[in-house]
Amino acid sequence: MVFFRNMVLIAAVAGGLAGLCMTVAQEFTTVPLILQAETFEGQSGAPAHSHAHGDAAEVSGHSHGDGTAGVEEEGWAPADGFERTFFTLLANIVTGVGFALLLVAVSELFGGIADWRQGVFWGLAGFAIFTLAPGLGLPPELPAMPAAELGARQLWWVGTVVSTAIALGLMFYSRSVYAVAGAVVLLLLPHLIGAPQPVSHESPIPEGLHHSFVVAAVLTTLVFWVLLGGLAGLFRERFLRAA
Predict the structure, then answer these.
(1) Which of 85, 109, 74, 113 is nearest to 22 (CA)?
(2) Most exposed residue of 1, 186, 195, 227, measured as fewest CB within 10 angstroms of its CB?
(3) 111: phi then psi, degrees, rounded to nearest 5
(4) Which residue from 51, 41, 50, 22 is spatially nearest to 145, judged by alpha carbons?
(5) pLDDT reported for residue 71
(6) Number of Cβ atoms within 10 Å of the Cβ of 117
């Protein structure tokens, strides 16, 4: 019971700090780009969206908001300024703690994270699984950009995450040639199938703005995962040493 409590505490602290740092990074990188993109909403028949600054979905490298054309119900959205930043921070912390719990739980199945250096490698693996691989087919989106049907995108995203996770596990924890070959197939399979695409790619968003946003979102997410893994390893090492 004590061990389980310590693992939850490690995930809470590491995830909270990583989410906080993610929010700070977003305020200087993705948020200005989102604000700029919001000025294009409503142009060329693009549907209006409600976006929180630096959406926590950037942690996974892809926004899952429904971007299909048509009438979209307007729900509640936080006001610009402090309220919007606060809810973004809250979402990032909750997301960080959730990913930290997953990271700690899975790493314990393989012997646990020995120190912060090993934690960084676990973080890089998380980045590859949840951001890099899905982002190859579904890059981060800005407001006013077209997107395929939500359910199809989510299904492909989940399938890609699971496939990539299994592939990395086979590569690093199996010495069988057949296992490595299977891992390569799993890595390529989602991209051979292809991610769902919108009917039309026409968008009022300038290509350069979207490119800048993708780069910023990927880099901030990379920082998030490196911090998450490193902090998880650091706090686990200290908790075990104290025990």
Answers:
(1) 85
(2) 1
(3) 105, -5
(4) 41
(5) 36
(6) 13
| Structural domain span for residue 220 | 2-46+58-63+79-147+198-242
Helices (H), 39-149: 82-109, 116-127, 133-137
Q: Phi-psi region for residue 44, left (φ > 0), alpha (ψ -120 to 50) or beta? A: left
Residues 100-150 pLDDT 10s: 999 999 999 998 898 999 999 999 999 999 999 999 999 999 988 888 999
Q: Minimal CA–CA distance to 53: which of 6, 101, 88, 14? A: 88
Q: Would residue 178 count as lying in a domain? A: no
The mean per-residue pLDDT over the stretch 215-228 comes to 97
Residue 53 lies in a domain: no
- SS3 (DSSP) at 128: helix
In a domain, residue 52? The reply is no
Instruction: Spell out a b/e string for 201-229, using b for 16 or more CB atoms within 10 Å of the CB, else e.
Output: eebbbeeeebebbbebbbebbbbbbbbbb
Most confident of 53-67, 82-96, 213-227: 213-227
Longest dimension (CA), the chain: 62
In the predicted model, is pLDDT for residue 157 greater than 50?
yes
The answer to the question of residue 112 being in a domain is: yes
| Burial of 87 per CB tally in 10 Å (0-12, 13-18, 19+) | middle
SS3 34: helix
Helix axes 177-193, 150-173, angle to 10 degrees: 160
Q: Is the pLDDT of residue 216 over 90?
A: yes
Distance CA 201, CA 238 (A): 50
| CA distances, 138 to each of 150, 160, 198 (Å) | 12, 11, 11
